[in-house]
Amino acid sequence: MTFTVFLFHLHFKNQMETVTMSTPDIAEVDQFRCRVDEIFQKIDKLEKKVNEVEQFYLNANKKKKSSSKGNSIREEQDKGRHVPSIKKQQQDASQRESTAAKRMQELMRQFGTILRQISQHKWAWPFMQPVDVKGLGLHDYYKVIEKPMDLGTIKNQMEAKDGTGYKNVRAICADVRLVFDNAMKYNEEGSDVHLMAKTLLEKFEEKWQLLLPKVTEEEKRREEEEAEAQLNIQLVREASHAKRVQAISNELYEVDTHLEQLRETVVQKCSCLSIDRLDQQSF
């Protein structure tokens, strides 16, 4: 219970005890008590709302303190910022995802060109299909290699239309590296397969370095867009809580008015009782 509400309770408890001791009209006293109880029930509900708002701003402040450098600059930029509505944010998010997906598809298309060039190399044939572990009698293969991978599987997953395919270029890059890393790990250095895998990996890395700046740029752009979206969501939440604070303030003012009216009524009743007693004593 807040200090203000505590004072309300204490004040009216004293007032009601005064009335109880000073008047025989029990029904009227009970009526006052009912009205006061109703008001304090409303105050209890308001307190819960206030606590929710306070908790929101406490969490918001913690996030601000733990966020990255440059907050002060961003806060200056956010002053006077237009806050889009929830509906507008949803529309923007949908459009943003659609545009980002098209950009990623273009990057994946360019990566597909790299994969095709590697696959067409004269030494690529051992890596185009899953290793025939049983046929080659490689009984220890799965003990050495935790995650088998091949270029054919990568190509199929890139072309998947059921939603199980790759979501970004770096994931494809990681699997291409895995193909050759597995081959070099299982086959001894100096062996034909080890040499073939090492050569193809080097050629792949050369081509990947040409595409990498575009991938990095896209990742940075996505990160900035996501930060922008999160900021807009936070601003909408803060605006919503600001409205709640105003509504709570109005309700508290209304409650305060009712309490003041009750206080005046109680005081008047006590005054009347005191005058009646003086009149009685004069007789």
From TrEMBL:
Residues 62-100 are annotated as: Disordered. Keywords: Bromodomain. InterPro entries: Bromodomain, Bromodomain-like_sf. PROSITE patterns: BROMODOMAIN_2. Signal peptide: none annotated. Residues 87-98 have a biased composition (Polar residues). It holds the Pfam family Bromodomain. Residues 119-194 form the Bromo domain. Residues 72-81 have a biased composition (Basic and acidic residues). It comes from the Eukaryota. The keyword DNA damage does not apply. This is Bromo domain-containing protein. It comes from Gossypium raimondii (Peruvian cotton).
